[in-house]
Here is the input.
Amino acid sequence: MWNMGDDDLVRYAVGELGGRDPLHGGIVDAEDVLASTVIRVKKAYPAYFGAYAEFDKVRRLLDGFPNLYCVGRNGQHRYNNMDHSMLTAIEAVRLVREAKADGVDRSAVWNVNTEAEYHEGA
Here is the structure.
């Protein structure tokens, strides 16, 4: 995947999100995808030093974007295991489905993996 061209990678991602079989999400219709961006970050990994103690400011800023849901390890800059990362995505989908015009409380997404016994990297 790392070596795929941007257009091929976008087509692949849209196909994964749009399929109707049990292995695919059925989340989007390909004709509804109006734009895309591919960002390649080599060896990206959340870092817990510097101003990480002030991450609540970053979270408030991110939550200010009405169509942005931060999920997974890199999306939340949190040491989430695979199961926790999937749970953040599941919560985000639930919130999108239930979205109201007056805004969405993303606490359910951010509260995945907040139990102290799971914090391996913090």
Remarks:
- The mean pLDDT is 81.
- Residues 1-40 form one domain.
- The chain has five helices and no strands.
